[in-house]
Structure formats: structure tokens, C-alpha cells
Design a protein that fits this description.
- The chain is of the alpha/beta class.
- It folds into 2 domains: 317 residues, 3-Layer(aba) Sandwich (Rossmann fold); 95 residues, Sandwich (Immunoglobulin-like).
- Helices cover 24% and strands 26% of the residues.
- Strands 1, 3, 4, 6, 7, 8, 9, 10, 11, 12 and 13 form an 11-stranded mixed β-sheet that branches. Strands 14-15-20-19 form a 4-stranded antiparallel β-sheet, with no helix packed on it. It has a 4-stranded antiparallel β-sheet with strand order 18-17-21-23, with no helix packed on it.
- A hairpin with a 5-residue loop joins strand 17 and strand 18.
- Helix 4 crosses helix 10.
- The radius of gyration is 26 Å and the shape is globular.
- The termini are far apart.
């Protein structure tokens, strides 16, 4: 009896713990070139762990918490190789490549798969890129930061690509072809989620300007018991009616994907500090509300800086997609305010934006053309991340000046080979207003690197705006075919 009790007690205590690794450090992984790379995991406290890869040997001693981390010096591109990690036991990681690692995050338009996009069958047939590696983080939310996830690296081919993020895949494929280096793509996206869910609690709490967003969540928690009761009643009725129509949505509350920091805890934190080149982002739809839209710039900047701080790699490139044109937006004004906030976030260093108000679907929040979205993000990456001198953005509003009192002259950056109207004809999408703030449609013409606007109904215009609608009729592009995004400006 005594022996049985002792043996049972021993089973309850981890004995001689083996070296363990997080899911992201596994077969077929791709490591970022040109920067120090941390390999980490868990083992018995005090245990020495050795990492061998590409002619390097790095060692670490396991901390009292059970975690260890060893640093490899900057790596260069080479043939697939094996990594050996040894402590009390020995692990061998097969088929490891070195190249460029990009993370793709956001909500449903980033999660949207290749198989649900244009030319899905053809894209799958042609997806034979053994030097592109894919890692897809499962959908999950958590109250506290998680140490690991259940996922694996996959070699890019016709079997693995269909379920993968279309925007991230097309972005990575374009860069792979242009740079001719291996590419690692990490998908961590969750449909229908707001930016605050992707931001740490510490970062959200540190900015008093974001209190209205946190206040909304607190109110949702207060209302949750009653809302949950209504949900169960609606669900029962839906099932009794033969499950006709859409299933009732679970109310905001504990465990919901809208929970502030919930997705950061479960889908971002476990990836830290895996070395990356940069991140791409497609999100904003779920923040297009009366309270949250005006705060989007502040929230978005907070999230970007939070990620940069957490990764500890400085101001790594962060690129995003501006919300597409969408006629069915619940609040068109809020939709535009989020778009404007996205553009204003370009004030941060090493950021870029892909404008897609010419290729969205007015009646579908999920446009199927993800190829052009990925290509435009790749253009931005080629300049911002890799220093290539090229026009990577459509015309960007710089300032507005008075032109003889009755007209305004609008100045742009990223003019490229010149300004023009897409498809020819007259420019569309410009409006002007006087001191009374009443907006009127404006006549607009290209004049060199500027646009001159006026209206017969506004004698002394003071303000100009462009594409100010959720589904605007607008057509200003540069000679490279890239569109201008929404903006507004006033005389100083």
C-alpha cells in the first residue's frame, strides 16, 4: 500500500522532463534570414539545451519557470537542412529553410481562403512552391496569454493552399517570385473580429483615449446574463423551426472573439518571439461603428506599436489593406471614418497601405479578387521592406491650397508617371464645401501633379474631400494604375 501511494505521488510530479518545443518550431519551418533567431521551448529547470543548425551551436540553461531560449546568429538562405535540439532527450527538426517570414492577420478578408477566391481550382493546380511554407493558427480566444498553439508548418502545394489565407498566399507568392528566396507565411486571422481583440491588455489599458471601447465591453459583460437567456430561447426556436435561416449569434460575453486582448492572448502571444520580416493586416469592418470608428486610428496605432514592442525587432514593416468599397455598409459614414483612420496611421514609420476601392464588391463584404489585393501589398513590401525604388501606392493627399478664391488645388504624393482618370473621361468623386460645411459635387481636372476642383454652387470653397462614401463613384489613379484613397482637407 505504501509503495502504491508513493508511486501515485510520483506520477503527479513531472519527473526528468523531456525537452519540448512550441508548434511553430517544427518540421518544414522557415526561419527569418539576416537577424538573430531565437529557438525556445521547455525542459527541466536547470537543464542545459543545445541547438545545432547551419554550422552553428547555441546553448541555453532552462529557467526555474521551465522555459529555455537559445539564440542563433543571423542566417543566410541555403538548402533545406536539419536542426538538432538536445537536452535530456534529442529532437531533430527536418526540412528547415531560411528566407523571409511574413505574418498575416486581421478578420475575415484575411482569413478568406484561396478555395473561396477567384480561379480557385487553377490557383491550387499551380501552387507547387516547395520553398513557400505555410503555418495556419487555429481560431481561439483566451483570457490570459497562451504559451502554445496546435498547428504545423506545411509545404505549399495543391493540397495545402486551398484552405490558406488567399491574401497572404498571393502576397507571399509575388514576393517569392520577385526576390527568389524561400518564403514563410504565418496566418493568424479570425473573421468578424475588432482590432482591440488583437491588442494586449497592457497596451489597451495604457491609453485613456481607448476607454470608450473598453467601456462598451464592460457594458456587454453586464448585459451578458440576460442576453444569453435570450440567445438560448432564440436558438431553441430556431431548432424547433427546422433550423431555417441563419443560426442565432452568440451574444458578446466571456469567451467571445470580440473580447479585448482575447485573440492576442491565443493567436499572437504564442508566436512570440519567432523572428519575422513584417506583417500584413486586413481588418476594420468590425470597428466601423459610431463609438469605435472615430477611435480606429488611435486603436490601430496602439496595436501596431504593441506588436512591435512585443516582438522586440524594432519598427518592422507593417502593411495593411484599406477597407474596400461596400454599398451595404451598415453605417456608410463610419465605414469612411475607419478608412480615413487607416490612411492616417501611415504616419507611423515603415507602414504601407493597399487601396482597393476599385476592386471591391459593392454587395459582398468579401470580394473574391484577392490576387490583386496580395499583389498591391507585395508592391508596398518591395519598397518599404526591401528598398526597391518603385511606385507602390496610388496618389496620396498632401495638402490643399486656394486657386484664385473660386477654386482649390489639391496636391498629391505618389503621383508616379502622372495623374489620370481610370478609363479616361472626367474625374469623379470630388466634393467641395464653403464655410457653411455643406458639401457639393465638384468639377475636377488634372493639372500636372495636382487636381483643380470647383463647384458652381460654392463660390468660395474652403474644404475638399474625395471618395467620401462606403461605395464611392471615384476614379483618380496614377499612371501605374493604382487608385487614390479617401481623404478630406481644409485650407489652413
Amino acid at each position: 500500500m505504501t509503495k502504491r501511494v508513493v508511486w501515485t505521488a510520483l506520477l503527479a510530479v513531472p519527473m526528468l522532463a523531456d525537452v519540448r518545443l512550441p508548434a511553430i518550431i517544427s518540421d518544414h519551418m522557415l526561419l527569418q534570414r539576416g537577424v538573430p533567431v531565437k529557438i525556445w521551448g521547455w525542459a527541466e529547470p536547470g537543464e542545459n539545451v543545445t541547438v545545432q543548425f547551419a554550422g552553428q551551436t547555441a546553448t541555453a540553461t532552462t529557467e526555474p519557470s521551465g522555459k529555455w531560449g537559445a539564440w542563433l546568429k543571423p542566417l543566410t538562405v541555403g538548402a533545406p537542412a536539419e536542426m538538432t535540439i538536445a537536452g535530456r532527450n534529442t529532437l531533430k527538426i527536418q526540412d528547415v529553410l531560411v528566407g523571409e517570414v511574413w505574418l498575416g492577420s486581421g478578420q475575415s478578408n484575411m482569413q478568406w481562403s484561396v478555395k473561396a477566391s477567384n480561379n480557385a481550382d487553377e490557383e491550387a493546380r499551380n501552387a507547387n512552391y516547395p520553398q513557400i511554407r505555410l503555418f495556419r493558427v487555429p481560431l481561439k480566444t483566451a483570457e490570459i496569454p497562451q504559451n502554445d498553439i496546435e498547428a504545423k508548418w506545411e509545404v505549399c502545394n495543391g493540397d495545402s493552399v486551398p484552405q490558406f489565407s488567399a491574401v497572404l498566399y498571393f502576397f507571399g507568392r509575388d514576393l517569392h517570385k520577385k526576390l527568389n528566396v524561400p518564403m514563410g507565411l504565418i496566418q493568424t486571422a479570425y473573421g468578424g473580429t475588432p482590432a482591440q481583440a488583437w491588442t494586449s491588455k497592457e497596451a489597451l489599458a495604457a491609453d485613456p483615449a481607448l476607454l470608450p471601447i473598453l467601456g462598451e465591453w464592460a457594458k456587454a459583460l453586464d448585459n451578458f446574463p440576460a442576453a444569453l437567456e435570450k440567445y438560448h430561447a432564440a436558438l431553441a426556436k430556431w431548432e424547433a423551426d427546422g433550423r431555417k435561416g441563419n443560426r442565432p449569434g452568440r451574444p458578446l460575453g466571456p469567451g467571445h472573439a470580440h473580447q479585448p486582448s482575447g485573440l492576442y492572448n491565443a493567436m499572437v502571444y504564442p508566436l512570440l518571439p519567432y523572428a519575422i520580416k513584417g506583417a500584413i493586416w486586413y481588418q476594420g469592418e468590425s470597428n466601423a461603428s459610431k463609438i469605435q470608428a472615430p477611435l480606429y486610428k488611435r486603436l490601430f496605432e496602439t496595436m501596431i506599436q504593441d506588436w512591435r514592442d512585443r516582438w522586440g525587432q524594432g519598427d518592422f514593416p507593417f502593411l495593411w489593406v484599406q477597407l474596400a468599397n461596400f454599398a451595404k455598409a451598415g453605417s456608410p459614414e463610419d465605414w469612411v471614418i475607419v478608412q480615413e483612420g487607416q490612411t492616417q496611421t501611415l504616419e507611423l514609420k515603415r507602414t504601407g497601405q493597399a487601396v482597393i476601392n476599385d476592386i471591391g464588391d459593392p454587395v459582398d463584404i468579401h470580394p473574391r479578387n484577392k490576387q490583386d489585393v496580395g499583389a498591391r501589398l507585395a508592391l508596398a513590401a518591395r519598397h518599404i521592406a526591401y528598398g526597391e525604388q518603385l511606385v507602390y501606392s496610388g496618389p496620396r493627399f498632401r495638402t490643399v491650397s486656394s486657386e484664385g478664391g473660386a477654386k482649390l488645388r489639391v496636391w498629391f504624393d505618389s503621383v508616379g508617371g502622372g495623374l489620370e482618370a481610370r478609363g479616361g473621361g472626367q474625374l469623379k468623386g470630388f466634393e467641395v464645401a464653403g464655410a457653411d460645411g455643406i458639401w457639393q459635387s465638384a468639377d475636377a481636372r488634372v493639372d500636372g501633379p495636382t487636381v483643380v476642383v470647383s463647384s458652381s454652387t460654392v463660390n468660395n470653397p474652403k474644404q475638399v474631400r474625395y471618395a467620401w462614401a462606403s461605395n464611392p463613384d471615384c476614379n483618380l489613379i496614377n499612371a501605374e494604375g493604382l487608385p487614390a484613397g479617401v481623404f478630406r482637407g481644409s485650407l489652413r
